[in-house]
Amino acid sequence: MNDYRQLATDVVAELKRQGADACDVFVANTTDFSTEVRLGRIEKLEQSISKGLGMRVFKGGAMALTYTTDFADKSVKSIAAQALDIVKVSNPDEFNGLAPRESLGVYEGNLMLFDESIASIPTDKKIDMAREAEEIGMKSDKRITNSNTAGWSDGTYQVTLATSDGFVGQYRTTNAGLYVGLIAEEGGVKQTDSWYSFQRYANKLLTPKEVGLEAARRVTSKLGARKVKSQTVPLVVDPTMAQRMIGAFFGAASGRSVYRKSSFLVGKLGEAIASPLVSIVDDATLADGPGCRPFDAEGVKSSRVPFIEKGVLKSYLCDSYSSRRLKMPLTGTTNRGYQGGPNIGASNLFLMAGDRDPKDIIKSVKSGLYLRTMSAQGFNPVTGDFSHGATGHWIENGEFAYPVQEITIAGNVITAFKNITAVGNDLKFRAGGVASPTLLISEITVGGA
Question: What pTM does this model have?
Answer without folding.
Answer: 0.94
